[in-house]
Amino acid sequence: MEQSRPGNGVISGSGQLAGGLYENITISGSGNINGDINALNVKTSGSAHFYGNVSSESVTVSGSAKFDGHINTSRYLSSGSSRIAGHLHCHEVTSNGSLSCKQDIRAEEIKNNGSMHVNGDIEAESFNTSGGFHIKGLLNASKINVNMSGRCFAHEIGGDQITVRYSRLNILSTLIRLLADQFGYADSWRLRSEQIEATDVSLEWSKVGIVRGNRVNIGPGCNIGLIEYTETVNIHPKAIVDNVKKII
């Protein structure tokens, strides 16, 4: 039997709420949530600190929000700064600011237009980014599309279709990349990973230890230690590849 919800939790200015069951939680200003909460919608603008776990249909962050526990939601939207000590499990993640998660992120769809830092793994059906990211574990998604305009790192990357390009639309990023290349700091502006494995792999401006795939395309600016492929491989003249091995 579904529990009845007592009402809305609202903080305007400065205040705090106890944990529990709510219809909606809205924080405008500075607010603390002391305990686990279950709400249909959670919206914050300003500064918010959640000391427990959050379960909801949607979480929207504008400004700064800190979560000491886990987040389980259908939709997570952040246009400010989010720091999550636990895991983030949801259907859709959209980050237009700064998102930090100390554990894993699991979602159907992830869109990152800012910066993302994850200490654990990311698992998704689709991962699209036009910003930067630092993933200490595995980035695993069926379809991965990276349009680099910031620093990108994942310890390992796996999926079905992986595409990495540097953003030609971001003039500042392009100028920084060219200057870094000229003065010997190109690696700091490449996507970096120990290993990338997928059915179809297409890379630009990437530094990778091992690339494995059925069909592999290595574009300009790449520095690859070893390529293992089963069907086709194409290597741009301005790419560096130490070893190529066809797997039969």
UniProtKB/TrEMBL annotation:
Q: Name the family.
A: Belongs to the bactofilin family.
Q: Which organism is it from?
A: Candidatus Pristimantibacillus lignocellulolyticus
Protein's name according to its UniProt entry: Polymer-forming cytoskeletal protein
InterPro entries assigned: BacA/B
